[in-house]
Specification:
CATH architecture: 3-Layer(aba) Sandwich
Number of domains: 1
Protein name: Hydroxysteroid 11-beta-dehydrogenase 1-like protein
Strand order of the largest sheet: 3-2-1-4-5-6-7
Shape: globular
Number of helices: 10
Family: Belongs to the short-chain dehydrogenases/reductases (SDR) family.
Strand content: 5-15%
CATH superfamily: NAD(P)-binding Rossmann-like Domain
Bound molecules: 2-acetamido-2-deoxy-beta-D-glucopyranose
Structural class: alpha/beta
Keywords: Oxidoreductase, Signal
Helix content: 40-55%
InterPro entries: 11-beta-HSD, NAD(P)-bd_dom_sf, Sc_DH/Rdtase_CS, SDR_fam
Radius of gyration: 19 Å
CATH class: Alpha Beta
CATH topology: Rossmann fold
Number of strands: 7
């Protein structure tokens, strides 16, 4: 290995550790009574976030499509200690539902401290066969609804000096096969919210943005798709959820969970050829 590369890697590690060391400590008390809206909260990471916020004594509004499941999740939130837990069923592909959900939360909670955007639409794990209809639909669910809700909630978040939390993916930082529409929506999110972060800072608006880069998480929907197809390790949804909440509460711009997703991202930037080789030849069981 060249001296330059060694120095570079050591510098990156030192900078990373220094950054972690100076990161603000998480105070669970800060979430007591805080007003939170979590999307995609009927299952997976969103459901786990609802339970963590509940344990911290937050006031929660959750949303997803299935009313029955939302009702069960809110009941569990109340039993875990949420000061308030309410739900509203919504379809994020609709043009009006994203606004409707934010308005509901603002009215029921009297404002918002955290807007946690987490929902995704189901998408096949397969090579792209030109399905424009699905890609357009997924863009509405995974991207357009996010920016619509963020814009609607922004005045309230500015008042409360609140936080916008966006659940994204390693697939927003590096390209992979089999998830083209999904990856496109996540790249769009990172582009938009990374840019919005600059504009808010320049306007001296004290709303924090956290963009969460997740690796493979062991949710039912993710595991159903990749079982037998990939050797990439999956990490627990409940821990992912807690890390996302802490990133929001401590106003960090970037979260990487599990931690090595950051290393993978850096490796891809430094050694694109080797990374592509591994992706194409060793990451998936694929026989054309
Ligand atoms: C921004 O808001 C946070 C959370 O309320 C607060 O701790 C911080 O002091 C604020 N910063 C400025 C510059 O107002
Ligand atoms: C790796 O993948 C590339 C592109 O699919 C292919 O050209 C190459 O032959 C593969 N190498 C091995 C060792 O399988």
């Amino acid at each position: 290995m060249g001296t330059f590369v060694k120095i570079l890697i050591v510098s990156i590690l030192v900078a990373y550790l220094a950054f972690k060391w100076t990161a603000p400590r998480f105070d669970p008390e800060s979430l007591k009574g805080s007003r939170v809206l979590v999307t995609g909260a009927s299952t997976g990471i969103g459901e786990q976030m609802a339970y963590h916020y509940a344990r911290f004594g937050a006031q929660i509004v959750i949303t997803a499509r299935r009313e029955k499941v939302l009702q069960q999740v809110t009941e569990k939130c109340l039993s875990l200690g949420a000061q308030k837990a309410l739900y509203i069923a919504a379809d994020m592909a609709s043009e009006s539902d994203p606004d409707k959900v934010v308005d509901f939360a603002l009215e029921k909670l009297g404002g918002l401290d955290y807007l946690v955007l987490n929902h995704i639409g189901p998408t096949p794990f397969a090579m792209w066969e030109g399905d424009m209809e699905h890609t357009r639909w997924l863009m509405k669910v995974n991207f357009f609804s996010y920016i619509q809700m963020a814009w609607r909630a922004l005045p309230s978040l500015e008042q409360s000096e609140g936080s916008l939390v966006v659940v994204s993916s390693l697939l927003a930082k590096m390209t992979n096969p089999f998830t083209l529409p999904y990856s496109s929506t996540k790249f769009a999110l990172n582009g938009f919210f990374g840019s919005l972060h600059h504009e808010l800072a320049m306007k001296k608006s004290n709303v924090s943005i956290s963009i969460c880069t997740l690796g493979l998480i062991d949710t039912e929907s993710a595991m159903d798709k990749v079982r037998g197809v990939t050797k990439i390790p999956a990490y627990p949804a409940t821990e992912a959820a807690l890390n996302i909440i802490i990133a929001g509460a401590t106003r960090q711009l970037d979260l990487y969970y599990p931690w090595f997703t950051q290393v993978v991202h850096i490796m891809k930037e430094l050694f694109p050829w080797a990374t592509n080789y591994v992706i194409q030849n060793y990451s998936y069981n694929y026989n054309p």
